């Protein structure tokens, strides 16, 4: 009888153990297959890294010898607040994550890097969890870097962030992770937008910091989820800052597998309705609909559709990584064009001031009249008439009121005087960089076209710019 009781106890224990294991297995979500992610981003390929050091060295040389002298001479940084550093020239492509709080930005980064349930994963939750700007970059081992250290390191591209103050640097954090994808790209996770919070409560200029990262991002993911589609003042301000960067924006409707088909269609339409007034483009923005986290898609949802959408987004990310050098050269060339336009405008303001000055004139009153009404003196129209500058590239006239408010016109020299026997003329050097050196450098990295054809047919430089203000 005792043996029978013992046998019954053993059987009961085994049944209880088996039931507990089944409950545990049922409670743990099924992990999603990551093979498509690794194949699309080419994480398993052991191909040799592209040797871009020579191209980067030439790019730095062109910038320092042909662009920076004119940039400093006419104080372009005080107009646009954007000075290019060596760290920015050599930096990897940057992918910026923006959007409301708790829509899955940090979870998406964890999923792309496979960091879930590892010591490296970013903290996630249903409440606002990310209060810092988090830069995830490559390193030999897991390492956390304080913002004040990142800003002090001139070798990195984040040293200009010091201008936003110590309160912001305390909200900036860097994380180095030994991951193959981070060898080719850097991710930036941002604090979620909370519409009922005033910007002043953050303790630092949130919109200005966002603008700094937006100006340097190669790809911008704006993430939403089905529960946060309303557009408030802070999100509206963010989309204003994204003007002109529409080609780099990817809108993501995350957590799509949490909805039935009919609900998903309604949410998709509501998202378009909310964003339509904020994006002034003729073509509707591309919205990627999927669920970016490691767990398998919810049963009875459009698994194939979500997978295709995810692969399409990953292909966009991979394209940005593959085109790193082309984008970098194009960015430097665009910067050079803006510097050249700024120098031509300052030169024209100065020439007009000198022409209007007489022995009895009050210099301050004369120049104030020119700045208040530049069209009366054909400042901007003369630039369009005498150079190949597009009217769409001209800066705002109002910006020059502030610029000359802190930079007296008499502190500048005419472009015709910015020449030396050994160094040549500043304007001619930057024009050579725009029309020949940078396009030739772009052609040298394998676009499959001759540099001399590329310089105008592809880059649209038109006729070679001439300095018609230079005295013979």
From TrEMBL:
Compartment(s): Sarcoplasmic reticulum lumen; Sarcoplasmic reticulum membrane
Residue ranges of every copy of the Dynamin-type G domain listed in the record: 89-330
Highest taxon above the source species: Eukaryota
Membrane-topology descriptor: Peripheral membrane protein
InterPro entries xrefs: Dynamin_N, EHD_N, G_DYNAMIN_dom, P-loop_NTPase, TRAFAC_Dynamin-like_GTPase
MF GO annotations: GTP binding
Secretion signal span: 1-20
Pfam family for this entry, one: EHD_N
Regions of compositional bias (Basic and acidic residues) in chain numbering: 28-44
Region (Disordered): 25-44
Name of this protein: Sarcalumenin
Species in which this protein is naturally found: Lepidothrix coronata (blue-crowned manakin)
């Amino acid at each position: 009888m005792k043996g029978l009781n013992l046998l019954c106890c053993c059987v009961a224990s085994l049944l209880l153990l088996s039931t507990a294991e089944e409950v545990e297995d049922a409670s743990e979500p099924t992990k999603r297959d990551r093979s498509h992610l690794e194949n699309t981003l080419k994480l398993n390929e052991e191909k040799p890294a592209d040797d871009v050091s020579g191209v980067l060295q030439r790019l730095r040389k062109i910038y320092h010898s042909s662009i920076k002298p004119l940039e400093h001479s006419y104080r372009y940084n005080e107009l646009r607040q954007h000075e290019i550093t060596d760290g920015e020239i050599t930096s990897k492509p940057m992918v910026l994550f923006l959007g409301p709080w708790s829509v899955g930005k940090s979870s998406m980064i964890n999923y792309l890097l496979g960091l879930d349930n590892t010591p490296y994963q970013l903290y996630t939750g249903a409440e606002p969890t990310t209060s810092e700007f988090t830069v995830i970059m490559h390193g030999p081992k897991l390492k956390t870097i304080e913002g004040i250290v990142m800003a002090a390191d001139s070798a990195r591209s984040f040293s200009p962030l010091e201008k936003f103050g110590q309160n912001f640097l305390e909200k900036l954090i860097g994380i180095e992770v030994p991951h193959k994808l981070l060898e080719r790209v850097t991710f930036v996770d941002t604090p979620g937008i909370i519409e009922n919070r005033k910007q002043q409560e953050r303790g630092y200029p949130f919109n200005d910091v966002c603008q700094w990262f937006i100006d340097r991002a190669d790809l911008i993911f704006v993430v939403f989820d089905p529960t946060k589609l309303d557009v408030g003042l802070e999100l509206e301000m963010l989309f204003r800052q994204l003007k002109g960067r529409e080609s780099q924006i990817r809108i993501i409707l995350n957590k799509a597998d949490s909805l039935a088909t009919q609900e998903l269609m309604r949410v998709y339409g509501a998202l378009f309705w909310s964003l339509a007034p904020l994006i002034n483009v003729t073509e509707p923005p591309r919205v990627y609909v999927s669920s970016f986290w490691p767990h398998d898609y919810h049963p009875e949802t459009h698994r194939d559709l979500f997978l295709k959408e995810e692969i399409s987004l990953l292909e966009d990310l991979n394209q940005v990584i593959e085109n790193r050098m082309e984008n970098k050269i194009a960015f430097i060339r665009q910067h050079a064009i803006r510097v050249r336009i700024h120098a031509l405008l300052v030169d024209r303001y100065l020439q007009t001031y000198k022409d209007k000055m007489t022995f009895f004139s009050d210099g301050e009153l004369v120049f104030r009249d020119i700045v208040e009404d530049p069209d009366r003196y054909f400042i901007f129209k003369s630039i369009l008439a005498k150079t190949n500058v597009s009217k769409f590239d001209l800066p705002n006239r109002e910006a020059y009121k502030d610029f000359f408010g802190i930079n007296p016109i008499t502190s500048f020299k005419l472009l015709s005087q910015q020449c030396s026997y050994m160094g040549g003329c500043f304007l001619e050097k930057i024009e050579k960089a725009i029309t020949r050196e940078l396009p030739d450098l772009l052609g040298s990295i394998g676009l499959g076209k001759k540099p001399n054809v590329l310089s105008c047919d592809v880059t649209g430089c038109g006729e070679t710019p001439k300095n018609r203000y230079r005295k013979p």
